[in-house]
From TrEMBL, chain A:
Keyword entries, A-Z: Cell membrane, Membrane, Transmembrane, Transmembrane helix, Transport
Pfam families found in the cross-reference section: BPD_transp_1, OppC_N
Membrane topology: Multi-pass membrane protein
Subcellular location: Cell membrane
Sequence ranges assigned to domain ABC transmembrane type-1 in this UniProt record: 104-304
Predominant localisation class: membrane
PANTHER family hit by this protein: ABC TRANSPORTER PERMEASE PROTEIN, OLIGOPEPTIDE TRANSPORT SYSTEM PERMEASE PROTEIN APPC
Transmembrane segments: 34-56, 106-128, 148-167, 174-192, 235-260, 281-303
InterPro entries: BP-dependent_transpt_permease, MetI-like, MetI-like_sf, OppC_N
Protein's name in the database: ABC transporter permease
Taxon lineage: Bacteria, Pseudomonadati, Pseudomonadota, Alphaproteobacteria, Rhodobacterales
The family this protein is said to belong to: Belongs to the binding-protein-dependent transport system permease family.
Highest taxon above the source species: Bacteria
Protein source organism: Paralimibaculum aggregatum
UniProtKB/TrEMBL annotation, chain B:
Segments crossing the lipid bilayer: 12-33, 103-124, 136-157, 177-201, 246-266, 286-310
Location of this chain's protein in the cell: Cell membrane
Entry keywords, A to Z: Cell membrane, Membrane, Transmembrane, Transmembrane helix, Transport
Pfam short name (any one): BPD_transp_1_N
Signal peptide from the UniProt entry: none
Protein name listed in UniProt: ABC transporter permease
Family statement: Belongs to the binding-protein-dependent transport system permease family.
Organism: Paralimibaculum aggregatum
Primary localisation category: membrane
């Protein structure tokens, strides 16, 4: 045991941070202004949404907190607006800003959950397909071909419709969100499966895999512990772009009235409900959630674009 | 061409398999959801009569027999009666199909007529500010969800300016079983906003595709050689470059027709356009099984046919592809 100088210890602790700061990825990030802006926006929206309970000025679920007299107020800077409700109120007197914060939370959670579901399914099938090969590979890849020939929105809609058809109508309200996550995830797994399979086909012939097999590791151990980590960087890129698509699909399905139940605020349901008031001149209930949706999706997409270029030196 | 035939047969087989799987899902929807006898007779009819009817309708037959009968009916366009509208599904689809096809046709024309020239322009004059404005606009266009575009257009053109109707098809003229909105002024006015909404995303997609293909072509040796020969720019761009750009564009546009039909579901809901998509969404909300399962079979058939044609075209146009399978991805954002 050697005694440590406090400054030396601090430097040692900071070393991994410094190494990360100087890594190629972070260097590329620091030198790509749009990536920095996008990440800042996404983080700001995500943190605000996750802390909705503390951040939102009003609670849209608390019936006692809103007053019908405050209904249909325009945003604060428009004539007739009130500083208490910065983005105005809806027809029930609920604060639009708070609704959007809670809405973004639900949209992000559904989006993330669908990405995780699609990722686990896709990576699992890709790994199985690439590592086992044979008829399993043929079955998975032909299914993927078929799935890819349909647009994501159609797959999500059809899966959602069929799932609703199979479940008794009285259960629709409670299980709407799991069904939504399932249907969005089902529309996104193929990209993971194809990419992972491609990498696994190359990796499994390499010497380290052979070495692991000779040592006596079981097939699934080799696949999960040795091959899988090599697929992570393209999977990260796909997951990021997939998140943008998933958020958009959630909003679209909820807008169409087959996603999140209308009583729960998500960005899609807010836009749907708001668009019905638009004809009486109340534009703000639908405009602000739409704006947030577009900004969020654009930022996640730009982040995904940057990540793809930064992690794939062949593209440059 | 000798290698095309086995490939065609393979794809045909795959298409038939997909249709059988979809038909089975659609069939299971029917059998899973309740007893059709209850829907037909209500609760208070005597049990022996129920059993008799069940036997007559073949509901006691084994599943494979019922499935074959279902497929036989489906091939003839027999899907039963809509629970919600109480008319045969085939008749309902016949009324709604022209609306969707006209919308998709108008959107495809707009997307192609504006997308291709804009893409060519942005590629040729890539450093001009106007081309960069087009590029930025296309990024925004690709990020705007279809329903947000629709709401925005309704707000500007129907509510604020009061120029165009925000819902419905306007007046339609019946030509035999086909009802068209193309022949009346109100029909055409009603078509503008939905068609633009549906076209916008495809327009930006086509524009970006044409631009990147064109840039690729402009970098090739034969274009450089044409420049070295001293040919005028106009000739190089429009005679040599555009032609080669359009081959992939045509095939991808073919695939995008499928995606237009899918996105029409959203556009039709925003504008209450009485087409197939709106019918399907309402069927999902009301769990109208006959309509849902018929739509499922029909849309799957439509996509299988489109993909089959596009795949054959790919292989006929580009001999380098023989032996490989294209994924034919119709990916995109709603």
């Amino acid at each position: 045991m050697t005694s440590q100088h406090p400054a030396g210890q601090a430097r040692r602790l900071l070393r991994p941070v410094a190494r990360l700061w100087q890594s190629d990825l972070v260097w590329s990030f620091r030198n790509t202004p749009y990536a920095v802006v996008s990440l800042a926006l996404v983080l700001a929206i995500a943190v605000t949404a996750l802390c909705a309970h503390w951040v939102a000025p009003h609670d849209p679920f608390d019936l006692a907190s809103f007053n019908i007299l405050d209904s249909e107020l325009p945003p604060a800077w428009v004539e007739g607006g009130s500083p208490e409700f910065i983005l105005g109120t809806d027809t029930q007197g609920r604060d639009v800003l708070s609704l959007i914060i809670y809405g973004a939370r639900l949209s992000l959670l559904v989006g993330l959950a669908s990405v995780v579901f699609g990722l686990v399914l896709g990576v699992g099938l890709g790994l199985l397909s690439g590592y086992v090969g044979g008829w399993v590979d043929a079955l998975v890849m032909r299914t993927a071909d078929v799935k890819l020939s349909f647009p994501a929105i159609l797959v999500a809609l059809l899966v959602n419709g069929v799932a609703r058809g199979f479940l008794p109508p009285e259960m629709h309200g409670q299980i709407a969100i799991p069904v939504l996550i399932f249907s969005i995830g089902m529309s996104g797994w193929v990209h993971y499966a194809r990419t992972v399979r491609g990498i696994v086909m190359v990796e499994r012939r390499k010497e380290y895999v052979l070495a692991a097999q000779i040592v006596g590791r079981k097939g699934w151990e080799v696949a999960l512990l040795h091959v899988l980590p090599n697929t992570m960087s393209p999977v990260t890129v796909i997951a990021t772009i997939n998140l943008a698509t998933a958020i958009l699909l959630e909003a679209t399905l909820s807008f169409l009235g087959v996603g999140v139940p209308p009583t729960e605020p998500s960005l899609g349901t807010l836009i749907k409900v708001g668009s019905e008031y638009m004809f009486s001149g109340i534009w703000w209930v639908t405009a602000f959630p739409s704006l947030l949706l577009v900004v969020l999706v654009l930022a996640v997409n730009l982040l995904g674009d940057w990540l793809r270029d930064a992690l794939n030196p062949n593209l440059q | 061409m000798t290698r095309l035939l086995p490939f065609m047969l393979y794809r045909l087989g795959q298409g038939v398999l997909v249709m059988l799987v979809v038909a089975f899902i659609s069939f299971s929807l029917f059998t899973h959801v309740g007893d059709p006898i209850n829907n037909m007779l209500g609760e208070e009819v005597d049990e022996t009569y129920r059993e008799q009817l069940r036997e007559d309708l073949g509901l006691n037959d084994p599943v494979p027999v019922r499935f074959i009968r279902f497929v036989g009916n489906a091939v003839q366009g027999e899907f039963g009666v809509s629970y919600r509208n109480s008319i045969p599904v085939a008749q309902l689809f016949g009324e709604r199909l022209p609306a969707t096809l006209e919308l998709v046709f108008a959107a495809a024309v707009i997307a192609l007529a504006l997308g291709i020239p804009a893409g060519v322009y942005a590629a040729i004059h890539r450093s001009r500010p106007s081309a960069q404005v087009i590029q930025i606009l296309s990024l925004i266009g690709i990020s705007l969800p279809t329903f947000v575009t629709g709401i925005l257009l309704i707000y500007v053109f129907s509510i604020s300016l009061d120029l165009l109707p925000s819902f419905g098809r306007g007046e339609v003229v019946d030509l035999g079983w086909w009802s068209t909105g193309f022949l009346t002024a109100s029909g055409l006015k009603a078509l503008v906003l939905p068609a633009v909404t549906l076209a916008l995303f495809q327009l930006t997609l086509i524009m970006r595709l044409v631009r990147s293909e064109m840039l690729e072509v402009l970098r090739t040796d034969y274009i450089r050689f044409a420049r070295a020969r001293g040919l005028p720019d106009r000739l190089i761009h429009f005679r040599h470059a555009v032609r080669n750009t359009l081959v992939p564009v045509i095939t991808i546009t073919g695939l995008q027709i499928g995606s237009l039909v899918a996105f029409a579901i959203i556009t039709e809901t925003v504008f209450q356009w009485p087409g197939m998509g709106l019918l399907f969404i309402q069927a999902v909300q009301f769990v109208d099984i006959p309509v849902m399962s018929a739509y499922l079979v029909l849309i799957a058939f439509f996509f299988v046919v489109i993909n089959f044609i596009v795949d054959i075209l790919y292989h006929a146009v580009d001999p380098r592809l023989s032996g490989t399978l294209s994924d034919g991805s119709g990916k995109g954002m709603p």
